[in-house]
Amino acid sequence: MERFRFLTSGESHGKCLTAIIEGIPAGFKIKTSVINEDLARRQVGYGRGARMQIEKDTVEIKSGIRFGKTTGAPICLEVKNKDYINWQDVMDTEKQEYPTEEAIRKIEEKSFTTVRPGHADWAGSIKYNFTDLRNVLERSSARKTAIEVAVGSVAKQILKEFGIVGFSHVIQIGNVKLDFYPKTYTLIKEKAEASDVRCADELTADRMRNAIDEAAEAGDTLGGKFEVIFGNLPIGLGSYVHWDKALDGRLAQAIMSIPAVKAVEIGAGVDAAYLRGSQMHDELFVKNKRVYRTTNNAGGLEGGMTNGEAIVVKGTMKAIPTMRKALATIDIKDLEPASAHFERSDTCAVPACAVVAEARVAIILADALLSKLGGDNFEEIKKTAERLNF
């Protein structure tokens, strides 16, 4: 059973995005300011669209935290959608018995029936029997990842109490790849955080920005690849006993379910196909009774468990399917040929996706850690961690 569980609600242009987090023990310090910093990190990035100029996301903690510390009760987080003021008639939760002509005009203007290839529109309309694809767009939108980043920030603050920290960075946008890596994780993190494409090499970052500009001019979009790294993890989180408790599988699912992500790799990832066993597997050495390795092709996970090395997870994001360059599609009203519906969108959101993935990884790791340590309050859990030499 999961220890750190959460459920989110909300639509892209609805009143707000909310999350309920359950299972966090009492006594953990949680700072609203840190959550807001992570929300801001998700919003910046070269290639983002006009929506990011409207929303300045901040979180309000509604319950479960008192005087900066968790109480052991469920935690409620809320991020308001500032753009809702322009969508009140369209996204009203109440049935309008006698709508005004202006309200009817707005609703009709924002309703659409032309499927957007690459989105959830077609399958969603069949599954839920919708005749207005606005219903699909609103919840399937990546806008909902804002509240997930807030939840992930809570998870990161819990992990930090045990010295577990992580970061994300972009390693590819379009056909521009990062070939030069700074020597240390600390340096990669510093350079990525200072970059508007979250790339740790400035020359590569320039080429990435040029590629984004070219795509924007063509009315097109770009995908790419990111990497999430977390270090200082204890050995043995996860399990080789049950398939659904294997940590690599749980991490893969967490990243794969981010909108637009189409592939996940751990450690060497797809490159493992080209390596012989003697090249792939990370040898163990001992010095002064300390076990160490000189490689980390396993990405910190062996047999579904942490092995003491840094966890390294990569994700591949497809190009955003909402674009000015309209694709051929159908109209669900009559199944006749049509051009895809367009709504304001990013040209490239890989840097933002990396921040979301960082949050998702933190959530899985926090759950695995709390499940391992047990306990109802921070002091109790801390003593268990000390006893286990975490």
Detailed description of the structure:
The protein is α+β, with helices and mostly antiparallel strands and 390 residues long. The chain has a single domain, classed as Chorismate synthase, AroC fold (4-Layer Sandwich), CATH 3.60.150. Helix content is 33%, strand content 20%. The chain contains twelve helices and 17 strands. The strands form six sheets. It has a five-stranded antiparallel sheet with strand order 8-7-9-15-10. A four-stranded antiparallel sheet has the order 1-2-6-3, covered by helices on one side. A two-stranded antiparallel sheet has the order 4-5. A hairpin with a 2-residue loop joins strand 13 and strand 14. Helix 6 packs across helix 11. The protein starts with a strand and ends with a helix.
Short summary of the structure?
The chain has about 400 residues and is α+β, with helices and mostly antiparallel strands.
According to DSSP, the number of beta strands is 17
Q: In angstroms, what is the radius of gyration?
A: 22 Å
How many structural domains can be distinguished in the coordinates? 1
Strand content: 15-25%
CATH-assigned fold name:
Chorismate synthase, AroC fold
Percent helix range? 25-40%
CATH superfamily membership, which one? Answer: Chorismate synthase AroC
CATH class: Alpha Beta
User: Based on helices, strands and strand pairing, what is the structural class?
Assistant: alpha+beta
Q: Which terms would index this structure?
A:
5-stranded antiparallel sheet; globular; 390 residues; alpha+beta; Chorismate synthase, AroC fold; 17 strands; 4-stranded antiparallel sheet
